[in-house]
Give the backbone structure.
Amino acid sequence: MTTPTPPLDLSTPQRLHVVGVGGPGMSAIAIVLAEMGHRVSGSDIRERAILDRLRAGGVDVHVGHQRAHVAGCDAVTYSTAVPERNVELEQARDDGTIVVRRAGMLASICGQARSLAVAGTHGKTTTTSMLMLMMSEAGMRPSFVIGGDVTDTGTGAQWTGGEWLVVEADESDGTHLELPLYGSVLTNVDVDHLDHFGTVDAIHDSFARYLAAVVGPKVLCVDDPGCRRLLDDDLVRDTGLVVTYGTDPTADVRAVDVVVGEGSFRFAVERRGERLGTIDLPLRGMHNVRNATGALAMALEVGVPFEAAAAALARFGGVARRFDIRGVSNGATLVDDYAHLPAEISAVLDAARSSGDGWQRVICVFQPNRFNRMAIMWPEYADAFVAADVVVLTEIFPSGTTPIPGVTGKLVVNAVLDAHPHSRVVWLPRRHDLVEFVANELRPGDVCISMGCGDIASFPSEVLERRHGTSHAAGLPEPSEELG
C-alpha cells in the first residue's frame, strides 16, 4: 500500500472556507488552518458557543449559508453532515473552486507534518490526548487535531509549527484511509458504522488497508480480538514495525501489577520484559489503563522518555464528556459520558462499579443515537448495562438521520429485558419525565451516569436544577457531530 496523497498543498497561505464550521470536527480544522496562517472563513446554520472561540482565533464566521461566502476562495471544505445541495457548495463548484470533504482537508493538514494518528472504534479521543500530552511534556511541541476538548489545554486543536502532528483518525466515513501518516495507534476494532461499511469484514479490511499505508510504527492492542485478527493479516504483518500493547503476557508494552485506587489506577509498565517504571493514572476503568499503555507505547517509539510520559499521565485531566463529573447533589454524584456503543457503555459502567469511589448504586441513563445505527445494532445492547442497578432509557437522538418506522428507543428496552428479565429498566421517551424520575430516584451514595452523543450532555445539569431549583445551564456541551 502507498501513503495517500493529500488533495491540497497547504504550505503557502490560501483563502479557505469551512461549511458547517460549528461542528467539533470542522471547528478543529478551522482553528488549525487559521493558526497555520491561512485566511479562513466559515458558516453554520445557527449561533453557538464554539463560534465565539473561532472568531477569537481569527476565523471569519457567518451564521447562515449564502453563496457570497465562498467568493474568492481557493478551496472549500465540509463535513458529511452538510448536504451536497448546500448553496455554498453549489456556488463553489459553479466557480470551479476546489471542494474537499473534511477527510481531504484533514489529510492536507497531516501532509504538513510528521503525523501520528490514533484510530479504533473506542478510546480514540482519550488516547490521542494522552499521546499529545506525553510528547508535549518531552518538549516535542506537537500540533494536534482531536475530537474533543482536552482539559489540560482547553482546546481540541492547535497548530504549533513543530515537526509532529497528533491526530484522531475517524473511521465513520472512511477518513482514516485518506490520511498520510508516519505512525498509528489502533485501540480496537468493533462493529459500528455499518451504514458506511456494510459488513464486519469490510470494517476489518478497512483497518488492514489503513495500517498497511502507515510508513512507521503501528501500535496495536493485543487484548482486543479485532486487533489480534489484524496481527495475523498479511497486509499488516508484512509492512513495517508492529508493536503490541495491553495486559496480555504476549504484549510488547505491557501494563502489570494494576492496582485500583479512589478514582485512579497505579500500574507498572514492562517493555519486552524490561520494567520501565510506574504509572499513576487519575482515571477510572481498565479501558483507560489500556489507552494509557497504547499512548505510551507510541510515545516510546518516537523518543519520549518514560519519565516524561509518566509525568504527563499523572497530571492528565481527561477529555470533555469522558466520565465528566458534573456535580454532587445531597450525596448523589452526576456524571456525563460520551459512551454510545455497547462496549463503551459496559466499560464505563464497569469503571464506576470498580472505581474505589465507594458508590452504592450505579444508575445509567442512556440516549440511543442515530436511527440507522439503532435499526441494525439494537440487539447488541442487550448485555451493555449489566453493571448498572437501574437502567433508564430514552428516545433516539437523530444526529441528522431520518426516522425509520418502528425504530425507537423501545428496541433497546426490549433487548435488555429479553436478555435480563429481572433487571430494573425504565423507559421514559419524554425529557421532562426523564429528568423528573431521576431527580426523585437519586439518593446518597448513588452515581448517575448519563450517556450518549446527543443532547443528553445537558442532562446532569437539568437534574441538578430540578433538585435544587437553580440553573446550571451555562457552559454546557452542545449536541455533538459524532466523529467516531
